[in-house]
Amino acid sequence: MKPTAPVANEETDNMEMTIKIDYEGYWRDVNSGGIPSASGVYSVYAATYDAHDKTVDLKRLLYIGEAADVGDRIRNHERRPDWTKQLRTGEVLCFSIGRVERTIRERAEAALIFKHKPPLNTSCTEEFNYDRTTMSLSGKCALLTTDFTVERTVRRAAWR
User: Fold this and answer.
1) Beta bridge partners of 40
2) CATH number assigned to the domain comprising residue 36
């Protein structure tokens, strides 16, 4: 499913927007080579893997990010050691991705982080610098709120 949003321009940050994302996943770390090369957002989870049933049980959301190529970003992220430090005995890293157009990727990431406040994200947890943004998530988005709206928390500077 292709994400939907208005075409971005210089004023995209200053307009109300709805962003729809259909998440794909889940990939365990050992299978991260199969994550598509696509523009989008991604979620990093701590999970357990049941080899018999070939299923994952997502335990905790650790991090949310965005990239022009989510597959490459996840595999080569500089914070990977921080992600693995969060794992408990028997847990593995697990990922899901949502394809998002380049023009709204940072806004989608900021809304997701502001709403969910993953423990390893350091920016966008306390401030949201965009106008009202409504998110509608579907697919493989466990531990994420599927429908929510966030409001700008920082006032725009007045032009003089």
Assistant:
1) 67, 99
2) 3.40.1440
Residue 45 preceded by cis peptide, ω within 30? no
The count of domains in the chain is: 1
Which domain does 36 fall in, by range? 12-150
pTM recorded for the entire structure: 0.89
**Residue 42 neighbours by CB under 8 Å, 6+ apart:** 35, 64, 65, 66, 67, 70, 73, 74, 95, 96, 97, 98
In a domain, 155, yes or no: no
pLDDT at 43 over 90: yes
CA distance 71 to 62: 17
Give pLDDT tens digits for 44-100.
Answer: 999 999 999 999 999 999 999 999 999 999 999 999 999 999 999 999 999 999 999
The two structure tokens encoding residue 134? 């409504």
